[in-house]
Amino acid sequence: MNWKEKNILITGISGFVGSYLAEELLKSGSNVFGLIQRRADGTKAKNMVDHGIEKDVKLLEGDLTDITSLANALDESQPDYIFHLAAQSFVPRSFKNPMETQTINSIGTANLLEAIRIKNCDPKIVFAGSSEEYGLVISSEEQHKQAQRQYGTIFPEPEKIPEIPITETNPLRPMSPYAVSKVHGDFLMRNYYHSYGLNTVVSRAFNHEGAGRGLMFVTSVITNQVMKLKFGETDKINIGNVNAFRDWSHVKDIIKGYMLLAQNGKSGEVYNQGSMRTNSILSYILLSLEHAGWNVNKIETFNGKKTIKDPTENDDNKVYGVKFDKTKVDNMMLEGNLEYSIEDKGILVDTDKGTITVEFNPDRFRPAEVPILFSNTEKIQKIGAKIDYKVKDIIKDQLNYYIKEGNRLY
Ligand SMILES: Nc1nc2c(ncn2[C@@H]2O[C@H](COP(=O)(O)OP(=O)(O)O[C@H]3O[C@H](CO)[C@@H](O)[C@H](O)[C@@H]3O)[C@@H](O)[C@H]2O)c(=O)[nH]1
């Protein structure tokens, strides 16, 4: 792919993903422009400083809610490619303040497309949609019944069960204001392609993590606390729902996918980006503890029930017809043989260096949950995407990041 001398505009350049992407594009010889909100204290965003890109990117002041500032950014950058990553991206925050999320994500995306249309420029636009758009994915007959009981109705009803691995044609059942805002952006992209001929392509990335991931997202919540345990700064791990399953990729694989979509993605199309794995939050905790130096022998709930020996033992059974790296507890949960609830209060992890407490915090549970995400990425693989990093590589990068005290406290 030839990126030399190409003009790139990244919205959300100071964010977690934006800064990885900008660094990669700068290395490839592109002129990178970034839309950024002015910081009242005049400091530079930590992500950009950490990636050493703050001097090389050309920052343009702007705001997604201000269409004039977007039009100015287009004039200044004359982009060949736009990566639209800026968003309010934290799901719980969207429940607390839905209008903020809709304004930034939905109206903001509409403003960007309108600015491009009015300016009559012709960049290829890659939009960061999300696996959250799929939302409530039905994984088994039992879970289908449970979801019907919990929500009263499911729309659309599944045509097949399980609806996993998730392809681009799976039903969209967004479960949060954040997810709805991403569905809106996703459809807008295609509408501007059909109605006005804009070159838009949608990435529906599943979770992507790595060093510098925001402290409020679960992989950082876990690895940050594990390092705090290591340094004696806390005596337990505080967590929400450990039953949820996510398809975790390394952010470095996903930004390569974004670049691939910019050059080879078909306009008007949607592409999943993910690892074709799924692992539980509980596994992420246990594997993080192991990589930080604790050998996990056994886990049990506070009341001494649900005892599992060697919970992190590798399991390579096929689930949903796919073979992938997972733990014994992942397999038990996926087969419906293990589930934790708030009533369990927490888990005691027996290790060779003593017992570690994992406490369930009711405030960290969501009003509506996405129980499982597991991608089918055959479509993007056909245009050359691949996943280089395993879950353990992501965990190691995150733990290393939190060795630095300033990062733990940040
Ligand atoms: N954040 C958080 N999540 C927790 C916690 N305990 C359990 N979880 C569970 O961990 C899962 C993942 O939560 P997040 O890491 O916050 O990510 P997300 O909601 O899946 O959304 C992320 O990925 C999407 C891509 O699929 C992104 O679109 C979105 O912006 C965000 O980055 C959820 O099921 C959540 O209930 C906790 O203490 N904090």
UniProtKB/TrEMBL annotation:
SUPFAM superfamilies: NAD(P)-binding Rossmann-fold domains. Keywords: Lyase. It is an enzyme of class 4 (lyase). Its EC number is 4.2.1.47. InterPro entries: Epimerase_deHydtase (IPR001509), GDP_Man_deHydtase (IPR006368), NAD(P)-bd_dom_sf (IPR036291). It comes from the Archaea. It holds the Pfam family Epimerase. GO terms for biological process: 'de novo' GDP-L-fucose biosynthetic process. The keyword Lyase applies. CDD domains: GDP_MD_SDR_e (cd05260). GO terms for molecular function: GDP-mannose 4,6-dehydratase activity. Residues 8-272 form the NAD-dependent epimerase/dehydratase domain. Transmembrane segments: none annotated. PANTHER family: GDP-MANNOSE 4,6 DEHYDRATASE, GDP-MANNOSE 4,6-DEHYDRATASE. This is GDP-mannose 4,6-dehydratase. It comes from Methanobacterium congolense. The gene is gmd.
